[in-house]
Amino acid sequence: MAKDIQGVGLGLASKFAGSRFAEKYKLRKSAEKMAYLSTRTGFKVAAGVLKRRAGRKPVDNTKLLAAPQKQHQLFDLSLSDEQQMIKDTVRAYASDVLRELALAADEEKTLPTDFLTNLGDIGLNYFSVPEALGGAAQSYSPTTSAIIAEQLAWGDMTLAYAALAPTAVANAIVRWGTAEQKKQYLPRYLEQTPIKAAIAVQEAHPLFEPQQLSCKAKKNKHGYVLNGSKTLVPFADGADLYLVAAQFKGQPAIFIVPGNSAGLSVKAGGAMGLRAAQTGQLQLNNVQLPADARLGADDFHSSRLNYQEFIDLGQLHWCALALGCCQAALDYVITYCNEREAFGEPISHRQSVAFIIADIGIELESMRLLTWRAAALAEEGKAFHREAFLAHTLCAEKAMKIGTDAVQLLGGHGFTKEHPAERWYRDLRVLACVNSGLHL
């Protein structure tokens, strides 16, 4: 994104918020709020301009997203101006909105009223749709998607998951869908009523392997017929659209399934974590789909989908969510341990406490490095399966440990709902038992 008037204004507002003058006259919070609101408004205005501009352009369905502008020999961890602005905006939203909603949403096991509608304030739907179809996405960037996921999860991992589940479907269709599939489904993300969409891969049987699916798809004269079940699918009250993984001719494939399909039903099911996302079971009983329902397949392509990359990008998305939640836990326990006193001094002065906090910081940086490395390779169009596997293996192990340590550092408080550590502990354990369901 070019550095325009909005960018200059945001930079000046940010510098003023951090100045001694703002601190002296107690204007810092007002300046920070002005910067946040101007950025949010700028996103909405930019999205509207891009949408109107795209309506005047002929649509080139062969290339809806531009290739990355830079080619690096090594992955680059420095954020662009656009990425930094997105990071700051999403973090402000997570801090101001998600943090306030998290506890009640977990207790009530449902999303807050108008939650998905209000997400339009940060423009997630617009930035998941290419400019050529009226959105605001200019290039494919898993790294930017990982940054957004991490910052949202800093507010709350469950609400972040619910917010990003529809965006993940759009990302998959943009990456793998045919031109007709993109034209049919992506414009729905620009409507006033937010679309509910989810990816369904996980199945409820021991030692589940995403390459060996019990959900089956068969071809008939009308298209495809799907039978099977999926678990840990969000929106148990029903979604508008699903991407369902099923075995087809001995190979895994992804099918686009409308939420109102005959033979499709959703059953709510309790889970240890992610309770506000209303995860449940998706049942498919002779669900008839049209001939163009297979993601990436048309009359000219047997399939453009790389299923392994589809799974890997989903695992990296979970890693990014875990990063945000673990960062929230680290920030919280540092403050708590510095303020909590025992025997006349803060408990952070005890080596046993300080070492645990230091270990969390080390493990978190390792998780972030591996996740961003894999995402950067994917963004460059290079092989990233090995890096994605390493990132997910590390994050699955260390996320559970960090969640446990956060509860332990809070002592008895960690066991109560007065503090968020027990909720983070429950949510972070999902990494060890889920396979995809998201897509960077």
Give a short overview:
The chain contains twelve helices and nine strands. It has helices spanning 5-17, 20-24, 28-55, 81-108, 115-118, 142-155, 157-176, 179-185, 307-339, 351-379, 385-409, 421-428, and strands at residues 197-200, 216-220, 223-233, 241-248, 251-258, 264-268, 280-289, 341-342, 345-346.
Mean pLDDT: 86
Helix content: 40-55%
CATH topology of the largest domain: Butyryl-Coa Dehydrogenase, subunit A, domain 1
Order of helices and strands: HHHHHHHHEEEEEEEHEEHHH
Rg computed from alpha carbons, rounded to a whole number of angstroms: 22 Å
Number of helices: 12
- How would you write the strand order of the largest sheet? 2-3-7-6
Terminal CA distance: 20 Å
Q: Say which CATH homologous superfamily of the largest domain is assigned.
A: Acyl-CoA dehydrogenase/oxidase, N-terminal domain
The total domain count is 3
Rough outline: globular
Strand content range:
5-15%
CATH top level label of the largest domain: Mainly Alpha
CATH architecture of the largest domain: Orthogonal Bundle
Largest sheet: 4 strands, antiparallel
Low-confidence stretches: 1-6
Number of separate strands = 9
